Amino acid sequence: MALPPPDPQFVLRGTGAAVHTLHFSCGNQEPDVPILFSGSENGFIHVWNLKTHRVDKTLDGHGGSSVYCVETMGGKNRLLSQGRDQRICLWDLAEGRTSVTNSVFTENVGFCRCALLKVAQGRWLMAMAAKAPEEVQVLELPSKTSVCTLKPEVGAKLGMPMCLKLWQHNCDSQPLLLAGYEDGSVVLWNLSMGKALSQLVCHQEPVMSLDFDSEKEKGISGSSEKVLSIWSLNEQQNLQVYKTQKLVNAGISDITIRPDKKILATAGWDHRIRIFGWKKLKPLAVLDYHTATVHCVSFSDHRNPCERLLAAGSKDHRISIWSIYTQT
Amino acid sequence: MAVFDTPQEAFGALRPVCVQLTRAQTMENVARLQAHLAAVSTSALQELQEYVLFPLRFALKVPGPKQERLVQSVVQCISSVLAATCVKKRELLQELFSELCTCLSPPSSSSKPAARSEELKLAVIQALHTLMHSTYGDVILSLYQPSTLPLLGFAVSLLLGLAEQEKAKQIKISALKCLQVLVLQCDCQGHRHLDEDEAQQCGDLFASFLPGISITLSRVITGDIKQGHKPTVSAIRLFYLIVGLVMADTQLARIPKNKEKLPVEQSRISELMVHRGPDWSKSTAEKLSLLLHKMVEFSSVHPHWKVRLELVELVHHLLRNCSQSLVGSFSHLLKALVGLVNDENSEVQSRCNEVLQGIAEQRVVAQNRALADVLSENLHSLATALPRLMNSQDDTGKVSTLSLLLGYLKLLGPKINIVLNSISHLHRLSKALMQVLELDVTDVKIVEDRRWGCESTCGPSGSLQHAMLKGRCQKKYFRFFTEEKVFQLLQQVCRVLGYYGNLYLLVDHFMGLYSESGMYRKQAAMALNELIAGAAGLGVDVLQEREVLPNMDDLKGSIMSILDEYTDQANWYLITSIDTEEIIHEPSVQHSGLSAHPGGTCSSVLLPSAEPHVTTHIMNSNIWQICIQLEGVGCFAAVLGKEFRLLLLSALYPVLEKAGDKTLLISETALGTLVDICEACGYDSVQCLINENSDYLVNGISLNLRQLAHQPHASQVLDTMLRHSDASLLPLVEDVIQDVLSTLDQSYNNQASTFLRVLHSVMTALVRWFGSSCGEEHQQRQTAEWRSRTLSQGQQVVTRQEVEQFFLDYVRQKQIAEGNLPDTGNEEADEIPPLAKPEPNSDTEGETPLPSHAQLAKDVMERCIHLLSDGNLRVRLKVLCTLAQKCGDFLRQRFSKDVLPKLTSSLLSQAPASARAGPVYNHTLAFKLQLAVLEGLGSLCEKLDMGENDLNKVADACLIYLSAKQPTKLQEAAQSVFLHLMHVDPDSTWLLLNEVCCPHQYEPPHISLRPVKLSGMGRQRNEFTDNVLLLLERLKQQESAPPWAGAQEASPP
C-alpha cells in the first residue's frame, strides 16, 4: 500500500499576501544558509532563511505591485525580479545590501514570467514579453542590449505569450526559446534567426506554464484545462505531441521538472500540488495543504540531496515546504 | 650565658672535672661535668669536644657491670655535648654510634632489650638522635657504606624492637623518630640533600632492612589502638618514607642487570647486600602489597583523624614515587584515598582533595597505563557490586560507595575512555546506574494533582512567577535511597562521565538503554540529561581540566538526536490519566513498551469502567518520564545558550504542549522548562519567548491539526500560547484559529470538547486584549444593579456584548433570509456593531468589515451554537455555562424546565455513592461529573438569575454535598454553589443554612417579640456543621463588606 501523502515539513507564514513566485538559492557552501526567495502580491520579495524558517530580509522594489517572477543570477547575491509595475529589477544583495542596481522597463501588461539563460560567465540572455501584444523580446544582461525580437507571422493569431523557457542543447549550441501562447500553442523559436522553428497546439486554452527537459528533448505544459500536455522535439526540430495526462481538477498554474529530471510538480487551482514521475507521468502523490489556489512550485538546488526541498506558494498567503526527495 | 668563651679558659675549667670522671665513674662526677658544660660557650666546647667526650665514653667502656643510672646520666651528658657541637670525624661518629647502641644491647646473646630501664632506653634513643643531627655532610655518609651495614642493621633492629615491644608511648615514638633519622628521612630542615647516586646507594643498603622494617612497622600500625595515634602516625610515615626510598621508580630504573661484585675482603658483607633487580622488586612489591592492604584496611577506619590523614600522605607519597613498582597495591591505596574524600574530618577531606587534585594535575594516571588499568578494574568491580550495595547499605553507606565510584571516575579523568571503550565495563556501569536511579512510582498524588480547567490558572496577564519556577526541579523519589546527597553524587557521576567521556559513545549507549526497555527509560533519560550537562561542563566538579574542549557542533548534534527521541510520539504522548476526555483521542497514537495502552474507548459512554490495564503506577511512571524529558529540554537549552534558538523550531512546540497538560506536575515542569529556555536563549519572559517564536508554534499547531490524534495537543499549545501572550500575537494566531475552526467543522462529533476549551481561551484572550477599550462604552448601558454584581468581572461584560451583537445579527440575517426585510433607517443603529462605531464609514451603505478580533469572536460563537446540542453531556454543560454567563434570559426558562431537574436528581442520586467511596473514587468519571455539575451550577444559577423555586431545588441538592463524608473536592464545589447562592439570595440561603446548624442564639430585641427558633439551634456537631459554619462566616463577611468586595471573594476558588 502506498504511504499516505506527507505533511509539509514547514509552513512559512508572514508574507501578508498571495505568493506568486518562489526561487531557492541553496547551492552555496556552509556556513551560508540555504535561502528561499518569495515574491508576493503586495510587491514584497521576502528572503527566507531556511535554517531558522524566518524572513531575513524584505525587499521592496516594485512599488506595491505584485511580484511574479524571482530568479537568481549566479548566486544568492544577484537577484532578478519582475513585477506588475512592468519593471524587471536587478538587485545587489551582497554584504547585506538591498539595492536595485539596474532595471528594465518591459512595457508589457501581461503576467508572463521572463526566462533567463546563462550563456557565458557574467552574461545572460533574458526573454520577456514585449510591449507589442504578441512579441517576445530577448535582451542580453547585464548590458540590456537587445538580441532579437520574436514576432509571430502575420495572421498567426497566437495571442499574448504566457510563459517562456530559454534553453540550449549544450553549452556551445544555439540558445532556443520555447514560448506558450494565449491560444494554447507552444512555439519553438530560433533566436539567431528570429524565426519560429515549430509550432504545436497543445491546449484549447491559454498555456499557463511549461517546462522543458533538454536532455530528453521533451517538454510539458499545463493550462486551465483538466489536462497536462507532454510533447517532444524530433530531429528535425519539430514539436510533436507525445502524450496527454488527464487531471482530476482543472487548472494548472505552474509546472516544474525537478533538476534531476525524475519527477515533476504541478501547482493546481484545486489547492493541491501534484507529483508525477517524469518518465511515464505516473501520478505519485497529491500534496494537500493549502486552502487556496497554489501559484507556484519550486525545487531546491541544495548540494546535499537529502536536504533538498519542494516549496509551493499559494493565494492563501502561505508557503509550504515539503521534503519529498527521500520518498521518491 | 657562657662564662668561658675561649677554649683555654674552658679547658681550664673542664679539665679537673674530666680528670675526676676518668678516675671515678660516679653519677656525681657526671653531674659535675654536666654542670660545667653549661658554662662553656659552643665554640669553645667544639674545640674541646673529643676531650670532653673521652671520660664519658670511657665510663661506658669500663668493663664489668654498670649502674644503670650512671649509664643513663653518661648518655645524657654525651647527648648534651653532641647537641652543642658537631661531629667532624668519621671514626668518632662510628665509634659513638656503636657505643651508644651497645648500651642497649643485651649483655649476653639474648635478644631482650627489655632488661634496661625505660629512662635509659629513652636517653640512648635521644643520644642517637642527637648524634645523627650533630653530624654533617660526608661524615654522616661514611656510616652508610656497605662496610657499616652490620652496624646499621644492629641499630635498626634495636630501634625496631623498641618501637614494637615497648609499652611506653614516648619510647615508641622516639624510636620511630630515630629510625626515621637513621634512614636519612628526617622531617627537620638542615639535612644535606642527597644526590642521586648517594640516594641510590642508601637505597641499596636499606633494601636489606626493608623486610624487617616493613613487617615490624605494619605490626605497629595495625597494633592495639590503645597505643594512641602518635606511634601509628609515626610508623605510617616511616613506612612510606622507607618504602618510597627503596622502591622508588627512579632508583629501580637505574639498577644494573647484574649484581656488582664487591672487593673480596667484603664478600661476607656482600652477601648481606640485596640486589634490587626486577625479580626482587616484583616479589617485594607483592609482599608489600599484602602489608599495605592490611594497613590501609586498618587505618582508613582508624578513629583518630591524624592516622587517616597520614594514610592520605602515604598514598600520596607512594603514588608519587612508586607508581610503577607498587602498581599492584594501588587498587587498595586509591580506594582508600578516594574513600577518604568524604571523611568526617574536614582536614582529611581537604588534604585528600588536594592530593587527588595533585595526582590529576601531574597526570599520574594519564601517563601510567597500568595505574589506569588498576583504576578501571576497581571501577568494574565496584560497578558490579553497586546494585547489591545500593540494595543493602543504608544511606550513609551509599554515599560512601558512590563517592568511591565518583572518585575513581575523577581520577581516571580523560582515561575514562579506556573504561568506556570496553563493552562490558560500560555495560556494567550503565546498568548499575539504571538500577540505582530507579524512581519510586507509587505515589498516587502525582497522578491525582490536576490542573482543574483552564480558568483557575488563567491569570489576567498570563504572568508566570518567574522566581518561583526558576531553578526548581520537582523532587524525585527513588526506590533505593532517600538522601538528597546520594542523588547529587549520582548526578556528578553522570556529569563527570559526560565531561571526560566520548560523548557520541555515551549518548549512543544510553539512548540504546532508553529505547531498550521501559524499565530503564526514565533513568536513561536522567543520565542523558546529566551527561550533556557534564559534557558542556555545567555544574561538574572535576580534578583536572580535560584536554579537548567539546566541539559545539558535536554537542548540538547529540542534543538534537536526544531531542528527537524525547519528542518522538511514542515517548512524548504517554497516558497520564484515565480522564476519558484525553483518552478518547489517543488510540491512533502508537505506544510502545511499558506505555502500551489498548485504545478504543467509546466516547459516548458516560461512565466507562476505569481502564483496567493502566495502573496508577504506570501513569505515575509516565508522568515522571515526561517530566524528566522536559527537564532535559531545559538542560539542553542551558547547555547551548543562544544556539538553542535554532532548535526552538522543533523543541518549543512539544514543551508548550506539555505546559497545557492537565497533570499538575507536568504542566509545572513544562513551565519551568520554558523559563529555563527563556534564560538560556536570552528572552526577557515567557511571553517574549512565545511571541517571538509564535511563527514556529503556529506552524506546529497548524500541521498537527491535520492529524486527528494530535488535535488535542495542538489545541493545548494554542491554549497555552493564548494564555501567556498578548495582542501582538493576533495576526499570526488569527490564521491558526481559522484552522482550528475549520478542523472543528470537520469533527464536531468527537473533538468538540477539546476545542471548546481553546475557543474559550480564544474568547478570554480576545476580551483581555481588546476588552478594556470597548468595555467602558458598554458599561454605561448597564443597570446599576448588574454593575454592582459583576463589576469585578468586566471582561465578561464585553463578551456578552459581542454575543448580544451576534444574536442581533443572526436574527436580522434570519429575517432577511425569510424575506422579511427590516426597515433600514430604524435598524441601522442596532445593526452596526458597536465595536465598529468609531470607523468613519460605519453609516455608509454596505458591509463594514469587523475588526479582526471581533470577526474572530463571531466565528467562534457561530460554532458554539451547534455545540449546544452536542451529544456529550460535558460539552453541553460547558457550553451552557459559557452561554448562560453571556445571555441569561435567553436560557433561563429552558434551563429550569429541562436541565435543572435532571442535574439535581443526578446529584441527589449520586450523593450516597460518593459519600461511601474511598480515595480511588476521585478518578472515576462519576466523580468528575458530580464535580463538573457542582462547579458549574452555582455560577449558572447566578448568571441565569434563577427564580426562588429553582434555587431551592439547587440548594437542596447541594446541601448533602456539604457533608464531611463527601470527597473534599465535592465539598469545596458545593461550598462554591452556596457562595453563589448567597449572592443571588443571601437571606434565604442564610435561613437554609441555619436550619441545618445554627451557631448563635438570637435574642429578640424586645421581649414582646417571640424568641427566634431555628431548627438548627442547639444541634450536636454533625457531618454538616463545619461546612455550614464556614459558609455562614463568609456570608457574614459579605454582608458587612462592600458589595463588590463580596463578589470578588465569592468567585469560585
Automatic annotation (TrEMBL), chain A:
WD repeat residue numbers: 31-58, 200-241, 287-328
Transmembrane feature ranges: none
InterPro entries listed in its UniProt record: WD40/YVTN_repeat-like_dom_sf, WD40_repeat_dom_sf, WD40_rpt
UniProt cross-references to Gene3D superfamilies, sorted A to Z: YVTN repeat-like/Quinoprotein amine dehydrogenase
Keyword Repeat part of the UniProt annotation: yes
Pfam families in UniProt: WD40
Keyword Repeat: yes
Domain of life per record: Eukaryota
Keywords associated with the record: Repeat, WD repeat
Protein's name in the database: GNB1L protein
Species this chain originates from: Grus americana
